[in-house]
Specification:
By secondary structure, the protein is of the alpha+beta class. It folds into three domains: about 120 residues, Arc Repressor Mutant, subunit A (Orthogonal Bundle); about 80 residues, no CATH class; about 240 residues, no CATH class. It has 17 helices and ten strands. Helix 9 packs across helix 10 and helix 11 packs antiparallel against helix 12. The chain is elongated, with a radius of gyration of 28 Å. The two termini are about 35 Å apart.
């Protein structure tokens, strides 16, 4: 693995270091990977799509994430976007590393080059030379609301520079001046993208709720279009899982000894399963997407809570509507659930999904290959555990509810008792209920995760511009 020397810098992919004048310059891992990628392909203009596929290969992020990464690299290299020495913006395409004299040498030879570079002192930056570098940046950060992308980029750049000068001192000087809530939100959001930045607490600070709300708005704005596509993907994946579960259950029921069900029941149950899966997937998927788009710290807890909230909304709404429809149209009063079941399955979906994608840094997770299968398997396992707990508590899912409705109506052919005979129970007992609930919930979790993590064919189709 070679090292690269350009100007007074030494870039070592093996050691993952960028050194200038004997001093290592801190960069977060993705920004370091971006610099290496641009240097490796310095003889061509690299398209944004190729950058996203290489650097953010398992995460869907907004285009502003790339802009911020390039801005940070330019600041680290003392580059100027208007007269670039190192990184040139190629309009409507991407970026190119343009420094002409890049020396490529092996690891051993580069060590001597690093020693020679150590004698070079880095030039003082304008911020370091200023009498008070904090105040102009604080003015930029608090001078006006963030109305558009240009305002947001300017505020983020000021916040990044303040982190470089010192996060604690920036917060102390920020105080409670006008606009401090939004400024604190921007500082909180950018700290993840600046190496060695300090923490930016919100709880216990002045106007904590306003700052938290501003932070959520900032993150949702950047992820809005991608989040909408993921929500639809989650609903479609859960619907497909519901169709499979219903069709499989119908085939088994029609085939089971002693069953009076006709083969058409497979289509009926597939339709009901798909409808239920789509509704549940839409609610839980929306909750998971919201949590993932807004959380950088405490991600597992936040995504789990948001999944539970999304499940609760659609669960209680479906429960009320189903009971009202049956009582109004058919005069039936059946013990149809939905609310508690939605909370449990939403929470378990969020827990499994957040654990499976915990390695990813920022953005919306889009694991590929084996990791995507792993995410689906972990989410399915968590949901299956939730389904078992609901069955043991006497709260059936779709299959158990259909059996209860068939018992209540009388003369229906959807009784699941023949399925109980297949597992050795004389009636629809606890073992049958548990197996059916575990299967339903597990398939729901798998379909939800597969739909939620669908990687876009091109990042440009989802990126917020």
């Amino acid at each position: 693995m070679p090292r690269y020397r350009f100007a007074e810098f030494t870039l070592s992919p093996r050691r993952r270091t960028l050194v200038r004048g004997g001093r290592e310059l801190p960069l977060i891992p993705r920004y370091f990977d971006l610099l290496v990628f641009l240097v490796e392909r310095r003889h061509e203009a690299v398209h944004r799509r190729d950058i996203f596929d290489r650097v953010w290969s398992e995460v869907v992020v907004s285009d502003s994430a790339l802009s911020q990464a390039v801005r940070t690299l330019r600041r680290t290299l003392d580059d100027d976007s208007r007269e670039p020495r190192f990184i040139r913006t190629v309009s409507r395409h991407g970026y190119q590393f343009v420094y002409p004299d890049v020396v490529v040498d092996e690891e051993d030879e580069a060590a001597a080059a690093s020693n020679r570079a150590a004698a070079v002192e880095p030039p003082a930056t304008p911020a370091a030379a200023a009498a008070d570098p904090f105040e102009p940046l604080l003015v930029r950060l608090t001078r006006s609301p963030v109305r558009d992308a240009a305002d947001e980029e300017d505020a983020r750049e000021a916040a990044e520079l303040l982190h470089g000068l010192g996060t604690d001192e920036a917060l102390r000087r920020l105080g409670t001046r006008p606009g401090h809530a939004l400024a604190r939100a921007v500082l909180r959001d950018t700290r993840w993208d600046i190496a060695n930045a300090g923490s930016v607490p919100l709880v216990g600070q002045p106007r904590a709720f306003a700052a938290a709300a501003a932070l959520v708005r900032l993150r949702l704005r950047r992820a809005a279009r991608a989040a909408a596509a993921r929500w639809l993907g989650a609903a479609a994946g859960a619907a497909a899982a519901g169709v499979c579960a219903g069709a499989l259950g119908g085939v088994l029921l029609a085939w089971a000894p002693g069953s009076g069900a006709r083969p058409e029941i497979a289509g009926v149950l597939a339709f009901l399963g798909g409808l239920t899966g789509a509704i549940a997937g839409a609610g839980v998927g929306a909750g998971l997407t919201f949590g993932e788009a807004t959380a950088r710290s405490r991600r597992v807890a936040i995504v789990t809570a948001c999944g539970a909230a999304g499940g609760a909304v659609v669960g209680y709404a479906a429960q009320w509507l189903s009971r009202a429809a049956l009582e109004t149209l058919a005069g039936l009063q059946a013990p149809i659930g939905g609310g508690v079941e939605g909370v449990v399955l939403g929470a378990m979906s969020g827990l499994g999904y957040a654990i499976a994608t915990r390695r990813l840094e920022g953005g919306l997770a889009a694991p590929r290959g084996v990791r995507r299968v792993e995410a689906a398997a972990i989410t399915a396992s968590a949901c299956a555990l939730g389904g078992v707990s609901l069955a043991l508590a006497g709260r059936p899912l779709v299959g158990g509810t259909i059996h209860a409705l068939a018992q209540t109506s009388g003369g229906a052919h959807a009784l699941l008792t023949p399925l109980a005979h297949l597992v050795g129970e004389p009636d629809f007992g606890p073992l049958t209920r548990t197996l059916i609930a575990a299967g339903e919930a597990g398939l729901f979790g798998a379909g939800l995760a597969v739909g939620l993590t669908r990687s876009p064919r091109s990042h440009e189709s989802l990126i917020t511009r």
